[in-house]
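User: I'll paste a sequence; please echo it back and then give the predicted structure.

Assistant: Echoing your sequence first, then the prediction.
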Amino acid sequence: MKGYRLPKRLMLGAASSSAQIEGGSIDHNWMEWERKGRLHDSSSFSNACDHWNLWREDIDIMAAMGIETYRFSIEWARIEPRAGVFDQEAIARYREEIEYMLSSGIRPCLTLHHFTNPTWFERRGAFLYPGNVKTFLRYVGLVVKCFGDLISDYVTFNEPNIYALLGYGGEGFPPGDNNLVSSRRVLSVMAGCHIRAYEKIHRMRERMGYQDTKVGVALHMRAFAPLSPMSFLQRKSIEISKWGFQDSAAKAFLKGEFRFPMQNLGGFKKGIYCDYIGVNYYTRNHMNLPAGDLVRPQDPKSDFGWEIYPQGLAEVMRELRAICPKPIWVTANGICDDTDRFRSLYLYDQLSVLVQSELPVERYYYWSFLDSFEWLEGESKRYGLVHVNFRTQERTVKKSGHFYREIIENHGVTAEMTERYVEGENYHQ
């Protein structure tokens, strides 16, 4: 296996989300979902990784690994536990963490919304109602006011297409609606929130005297392929699935182009509403009419059952660049590998594809830094570079984490590194 050098412009980082690592009994929609018994195991968000208390230890581990940039989220329900009531202690605690990040040489990238809503906002209908846009923008303004002097890089929403589809399309996320009309409306309202937030963040930070603001959205993108030889129906099924799942949303969020099924509820003008293209990529879907999406038995799979298809990263990046000619940030890319059997091989392959693509990729955030609370799956699925014992909260850097540390240190992969970390690993083990 050959070594390779990474592009000079590329920063290497890791990502996580507040609800998945912080712990604590926070009054948000996923905690309410847990109380209703909707999770697949008996674990709890209140445990997670206890990062709320162990944040300093976690940042020290990041710094020791050489992590250059960290994408994390603020928990809205912590800083605004009731509508219009703001917790100054929680705000101060987040600020302390961000300052420590910066002092450790780690560039923060802040995600404003990562699947969780305060319960009071959820009960108001969340993003189902355009009238709630003002409430979300109030939260955005609070975050920029409190942290805008420390943070220049922002993600407005993490995977809004997944939030809308899984929460309002009958796929198990809260609020558990099963109405594709609602799913369409939610995604359209979120696109409007993104556009307004993009404008607001730039405007506020410019007034603070900063000209380095970067705002985008992290879109969940998948590669698509036919299960059987391409026919007219198979080709059309792929076109329709891609358009409905990701392409229509990408055009609305990135360029203000609203075409069915998206709705231009705010009368937005076409333009550019991003400073980078954020892409979350994990897998490929095979289309087979009339069964829908399937995974072929012979394909390598993660422990989540998703196909491992590294080339898809380049495919989706090219598709997004065709929509909007902005630099690319891989805002999440990772694998569920519970025993760290092939995560080093996965990193090698994904970064190799990124290099070979010759696309203008500026950031790569591995998902995730820690083993964390995997939404419906709870503690049963592990994506982290760092192992977490959820009972003792002990952290241990995995083999793949050490490999990533050396990739960052060398800004690439040497032949000797592949021999130590990658050779012998096999997706079919």
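Residues 70 and 228 are 41 Å apart (CA to CA). DSSP finds 14 helices and 13 strands in the chain.
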